[in-house]
Amino acid sequence: MAHLVVALSGGVDSAVATARLVAAGHDVSAVHLVLQDAAGGRAAPAVEAARRVADALVIAFEVWDLRAEFEASVLADFAREYSAGRTPNPCLRCNRTIKFGALLDRALAAGFDGVATGHYARLVRHGPVIELHRAADRAKDQSYVLGVLSAHQLGRAWFPLGESTKAEVRAEAARLGLPVAHTGESMDLCFVPDGDTGAWLRTRLGERPGAIVDETGAVIGHHAGTYRFTIGQRKGLRLGSPAADGLPRYVVGVDATTGTVRVGPRNALRADTMSCGAPTWCGAPPAGSGGFRAGVQVRAHAPEVAGTVHADDARTDVELDAPIHGVAPGQTAVFYDGTRVVGSATILAASAV
Predict the structure, then answer these.
(1) Model confidence over 66-87: pLDDT tens digits?
(2) How far apart are CA 189 and CA 75, in angstroms?
(3) Which pTM does this prediction carry?
(4) Catalytic sites, residue numbers
(5) 56, 129, 177, 316 - which has most CB atoms within 10 Å?
């Protein structure tokens, strides 16, 4: 049996994950992570909800303050990436640097064997080899946001919900009498509870006015900051004149250096090649030097697209079998072999051949 820290958020998923580990005989301590001030939205109620779950399961409970780490590793990075015209996913960053970074480091230093969470993903162990796989419930699968974890991090991770559906988890919470059995889903970024990411970025980056131009370079609108736009965006453009063909226009380019947002037709969003940064492998790197076939996913819950991946220590190039639309620099490409997560890389640029 393992000596584990469970990240207890105050929601139903982490509560049932904790209950399952306790029932399996593991030595479990619950930890609630404070990542931002209570004024940020949900901190105080979440702490009390997590405490009630720990009390119901009769396990130790602590609150660990990781606000400084979250600010430096997630919030500052999020603002910096948008300031540079890129589109990051802070949940991936948080998993790598906080939940399986700062939290895992602190847990190991305190003598724990690893960290468990309520993520929907599966770990398959073949002796010393650990593989990350998609969850059994494809609708709830969170392997994409865990695809940035290293083999070392996965070797210290537990995901008790990987074989279950959300409905099964809720029913189990109710059967066990857990006080969060009927807690609603949280869909927004935890640090932007009202969903207005642009307003949050404005408080960090200030007003940075610039021009919106069409394919010819003609100015057809203005904006208050390129950080309010991402590749593929259609809403909120507030253009002064319709397109000549009457069709919708989308953001097809963001140049933070010049403060220019470029718009165009949907077909300008097609991409079948991607240049990415250094890869992170969830296990041993693929063998051979000629590239490997993979399913490629570029957003959470987006469909996979088959392609060929060429990678070395410094960069990753992806050739897709079919084009996808709206690939933005800063997003993460996660590579799959069936249900197994092979690895990931940050997208630097995408284009159509």
Answers:
(1) 999 999 999 999 999 999 999 9
(2) 11
(3) 0.94
(4) 94, 190
(5) 316
